[in-house]
Amino acid sequence: xxxxxxxxxxxxxxxxxxxxxxxxxxxxxxxxxxxxxxxxxxxxxxxxxxxxxxxxxxxxxxxxxxxxxxxxxxxxxxxxxxxxxxxxxxxxxxxxxxxxxxxxxxxxxxxxxxxxxxxxxxxxxxxxxxxxxxxxxxxxxxxxxxxxxxxxxxxxxxxxxxxxxxxxxxxxxxxxxxxxxxxxxxxxxxxxxxxxxxxxxxxxxxxxxxxxxxxxxxxxxxxxxxxxxxxxxxxxxxxxxxxxxxxxxxxxxxxxxxxxxxxxxxxxxxxxxxxxxxxxxxxxxxxxxxxxxxxxxxxxxxxxxxxxxxxxxxxxxxxxxxxxxxxxxxxxxxxxxxxxxxxxxxxxxxxxxxxxxxxxxxxxxxxxxxxxxxxxxxxxxxxxxxxxxxxxxxxxxxxxxxxxxxxxxxxxxxxxxxxxxxxxxxxxxxxxxxxxxxxxxxxxxxxxxxxxxxxxxxxxxxxxxxxxxxxxxxxxxxxxxxxxxxxxxxx
Length: 491
Fold this sequence. Notes:
mainly alpha; Growth Hormone, Chain: A; 79% helix; globular; disordered N terminus
């Protein structure tokens, strides 16, 4: 591509085209979003599936597959463990072959996971099916980073939130279908959305960021204009992206004689990469500890433990899913108005306060009589906590985790952060039932509230603001670069 484009204020004629209608551009972006949402819908069912599978396995009246509590908890958490392996498979594809191939791979693996689960006839097949699905846990970061690269700065926040709404829809689908379907039937139904995701991904262009990183600037320009049009703002963002990657290619030439081991060692010691991984590890731990996954998987068990009523627990789970979807829909608007830091620390503090209140209320109800008649008080507090967390800390944390990785190290960052994600995820699903058994629901909420408090305290010091900034602007800020023209463009 003509370097003149990136070294002068005026753009050459090949790029100066009539702006496309905004409806067309939005339609193209939504086409990419649709694939992420279909994958997230399937992932939502996968995360919530233990709430349907475990009761069936543990039921003494079951005529199907049976298991003890230890086996059931391992089946629930095994996909988090296999997710670690998945990141070592998916991250090299992500960085070396592109965003499109890795998204196809993730969805194909999920497809085979659902088929195996739907046809499982013994515990071994259940373990295998959940382990296969676990390989796609990396899809959480892969899909998030991919969507952030394909969307504009102004749309990135609520696009990420819409993706999270799809996870909520998946959970609601799982809990609702459980009223009329068996768990193998639910697994069979989930083959449909993941099949559509595979088909739609085949029609994508490759990510402009990936193409620029690989020095394929002509293809980068075509893909970028296909997604964002040719407005002045889009052309400036394209110029900024390619200039940065040209600079990186010049730096690479100076180190091309180094061995692969030394290059890898340099990557591991890169300050911006380590800072980004640390930030993502902290926001991921916040997501896990504030209830994102343990409530999806074990809310029925928690509510039954508190109320002693299975019907209250079942309907409470469905209400929770509806509130989750509502909360994420609200957060689509909220995340466009407020800064990331304001939402993370403001609503994060409210979330922590509610977790401590829930802990105190459960302890009081267990040891004193004056709350014993208020059956719905604690379930309502839990649902309120889930709602507030889903409006603020959860969608913002997910959005931040897709924004702070430097492009040059995005594959390695995704791998390192993904390993942390799968460890936290597996530990949460494995340890939550044990914590409830040994410390009670009250103690469990106290421990998780302290973890969230610790993470937010560190993030308050090190987290930059990312709202309405291009990924390149965020990367420059992480590197400590000052770019006046970039700031003017953002404003």
